[in-house]
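Structure (tokenized):
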């Protein structure tokens, strides 16, 4: 079973993570989906887990939620290439529904098993601000008592850095017809802009 190598580069971590057997999710996933983006980004964005398209492509946030994230980053004045994007869990957890593979929420044990990889990514990238997108990412970074609804948009000191909590972009996509999806999108953009402003203000 692969373990997190000490003092490794992101490339070395990515290779090592391919052999991780810390939980059983690897058995049904196409591949490990590690983080991608700027190796020294001031901002790190953390989501829940790869989706169906990410699992097939081997890259984070390339599906519908990723496209919405791209739009939000543009509106917030953030270059996607200037941030590092990853997930709390590196394998796609899913259940078959007809011909589709539908997302299934990872368990606390699965999030815990994957946490050393996320922690290693944070150490190497050394971002000024980490954006936790959704409940799973928030719990992985801040612990189970953290709440998206309560803590959203407020800078939280964490390990000499700042965490800004917000929703996962997939939650915006799930807003039902007749709901205020555009309003939710604007709030998400505002959270990203807050994170960018804090990241720009902090000096390492």
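Design, position by position:
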């Amino acid at each position: 079973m692969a373990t997190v190598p000490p003092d490794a580069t992101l490339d070395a971590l990515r290779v090592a993570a391919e052999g991780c057997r810390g939980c059983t999710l690897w058995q049904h996933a196409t591949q490990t989906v590690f983080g991608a983006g700027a190796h020294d980004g001031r901002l790190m964005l953390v989501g829940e887990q790869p989706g169906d398209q990410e699992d097939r492509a081997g890259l984070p946030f390339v599906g519908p939620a990723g496209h919405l994230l791209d739009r939000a980053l543009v509106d917030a004045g953030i270059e996607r290439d200037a941030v590092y994007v990853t997930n709390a869990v590196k394998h796609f957890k899913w259940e078959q529904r007809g011909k589709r593979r539908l997302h299934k929420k990872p368990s606390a044990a699965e999030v815990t098993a994957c946490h050393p990889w996320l922690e290693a990514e944070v150490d190497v990238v050394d971002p000024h601000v980490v954006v936790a997108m959704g409940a799973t990412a928030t719990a992985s970074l801040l612990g189970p008592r953290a709440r998206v609804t309560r803590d959203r948009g407020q800078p939280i000191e964490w390990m000499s850095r700042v965490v800004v909590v917000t929703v996962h972009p997939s939650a915006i996509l799930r807003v039902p017809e007749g709901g205020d999806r555009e309003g939710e999108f604007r709030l998400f953009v505002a959270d990203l802009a807050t994170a960018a402003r804090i990241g720009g203000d902090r000096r390492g």
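Reviewer-requested clarification: The first strand starts at residue 36 and ends at 37. The CA atoms of residues 78 and 138 lie 21 Å apart.
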